[in-house]
Amino acid sequence: MPDPIAVNSMFSRIACRYDVANRILSGGIDLWWRRRLVAAVKRDQPHDVLDLATGSGDIAFALSRKVMTAKNIIGMDFCQPMLDEAEIKRAAAGENAFPGVRFQQGDGLALPLADASFDAVTISFGLRNMADRAKSLTEMRRVLRPGGRMYVLEFSQPDPWFKPLYLFYLRHVLPTIAGIVTRDRAAYVYLNESIEQFPGRHQLAQEIKAAGFQNVAATGLTFGIVALHEAVA
Asked: Is residue 143 a contact partner of residue 50, using CB atoms and an 8 Å limit?
């Protein structure tokens, strides 16, 4: 499992270049993946939403724009420099651009939030970095109201025919490009390793069920390299 101190340090180092690296390394497809997540949340019309591992706030801001029912959105992350980047984005958009959004530092393994206080919890590309996935999933379920929904967008294991090409990209191409963009190649070697070690969508669905969730569904995206999981508390 990831070392929280090392992960925090890594994201602190790359925070100011994180978004640019995401766009380049994914060829922009990460924007579509996030749109799929936001569309799923919009369908269920929640009022109170927690965006865990919010990073630089893209999902929180998109929820504020697209999900009209979401009047209270908390973007939470344990890495303060990433939250600083989110606040820079908010300031650039204008003081009143995202009135329902607020950011808060917090640990995904011990959320500083009351039980049953949210209709929805989202987490995009953050579950993989939790030191204890089971505990993090349990915490997300704890803060959801009965019948509330969790949405997990995360890297997964690709379709078998695509796996050799994908692994070559992860191991050789991605760290090199990322090293040029962020000047921190080691951070993206970690990214590669964490993706390779992460379970596929069917195994992760079982972990979500084990945490007490029901009606777990998993949808593979882009040849299976990413999956969108949905579940009910």
From this structure: yes
CA 82 to chain centre: 13
The pLDDT tens digits for 45-72 are: 999 999 999 999 999 999 999 998 998 9
Q: Provide DSSP, 68-93.
A: TT--EEEEEES-HHHHHHHHHHHHHH
Q: Which helix (H) or strand (E) holds 118?
A: strand 118-124
Q: What does the alpha-carbon distance between residue 192 and residue 35 come to, in Å, rounded to a whole number? A: 23
Residue 178 CB-half CA count within 13 A: 25
221 SS3 class: strand
Which H/E stretch holds residue 230? strand 226-232
Architecture of domain 4-157+198-232: 3-Layer(aba) Sandwich (3.40)
Is 177 within 8 Å of 170 (Cβ atoms)?
no
Tokens 């919009």 identify what position?
Answer: 42
Does residue 202 contact residue 218 with C-beta atoms inside 8 Å? Answer: yes
Quickly state the pLDDT bin for 196 (edges 50, 70, 90): confident
Q: How does residue 7 score in pLDDT terms, banded at 50, 70 and 90?
A: low
Q: Quick one: angle between helices 18-26 and 80-93, nearest 10?
A: 90
